[in-house]
Amino acid sequence: MSLTSSPATERRVAWRVGTVVGVQQETPRSRRITLDVPGWPGSLGGQHVDVRLTADDGYQASRSYSLASAGEGGVIQLAVDRLPDGEVSPYLNDVLAVGDEVEVHGPLGGWFVWQPSASAEPVRPVQLIAGGSGVVPMVSIIRTHVQAGDAAPFRMLYSIRSPADVFFREELAAAESAGLLSTEYVYTREAPPGSTTPAGRITRERFAAALTPAEQEPTVYVCGATPSSRGS
Ligand SMILES: Cc1cc2nc3c(=O)[nH]c(=O)nc-3n(C[C@H](O)[C@H](O)[C@H](O)COP(=O)(O)OP(=O)(O)OC[C@H]3O[C@@H](n4cnc5c(N)ncnc54)[C@H](O)[C@@H]3O)c2cc1C
């Protein structure tokens, strides 16, 4: 068998140039970045991209970022937590500006996706478990769910340092108000004023109470920072 590239392979491995069309402070330590990527093939809820930066001297660095966006259209959205001692995330948070170009490779991650069930299929509940910026792929899954208006019950357990650190706050609240999502927030460092539950890491009991029971056979998605990217 000869090793040649097919049009499909070329599509899969393509790096595309995206232009920054929006930057917005997401939380005190993170930023929402919107990119216009001509030729973008669309993505499913839960997928991610690799972003590659090239310095003037040719040095390159690439990192993976989840897509908060999903579906058709050439505009994609990321949300990047700033690691003070990191190489790429401080640049994306502090330097990248509207009009700048970055290279984008994807969508990637066909194993971490959610799609609405076809009408003949039984509805399966969805349990999302997110820590910090790990909520970003969950947002694209939630957006897909809200857009489809499908009947799957959606629950999310979201562990975050403090109320100020909640990503996509308004959108999550809107999905809650519409009855399309139920979120249990776990604040690890600072609880909201008046909260009866003190800040702290989640306990086994609270974890069990917050999750969809296994007998309901939920589809479960878990995403959170790794120890090296947790920051201070
Ligand atoms: C599939 C996927 C999706 C992701 N999605 C997101 C997302 O949506 N949002 C998001 O914010 N992040 C996301 N990430 C994490 C992201 O890819 C980067 O890892 C993150 O932004 C940090 O990159 P950095 O270049 O700033 O830090 P890096 O320079 O890579 O450093 C990361 C950490 O490692 C430490 N470190 C670096 N080099 C060394 C060394 N030699 N020895 C010891 N420690 C070292 C640094 O001090 C820092 O704390 C995702 C990762 C994956 C794999």
Automatic annotation (TrEMBL):
FAD-binding FR-type domain segment(s): 13-114
Keywords assigned by UniProt, alphabetized: 2Fe-2S, Iron, Iron-sulfur, Metal-binding
InterPro entries reported for this sequence: Cbr1-like_FAD-bd_dom, FAD-bd_FR_type, FNR_nucleotide-bd, MRET, OxRdtase_FAD/NAD-bd, Riboflavin_synthase-like_b-brl
Cofactor: FAD
Pfam families reported for this sequence: FAD_binding_6 (PF00970), NAD_binding_1 (PF00175)
PANTHER family: NADH OXIDOREDUCTASE HCR (PTHR47354), PROTEIN RFBI (PTHR47354:SF5)
Record's protein name: Oxidoreductase
Source organism per UniProt: Pseudolysinimonas kribbensis
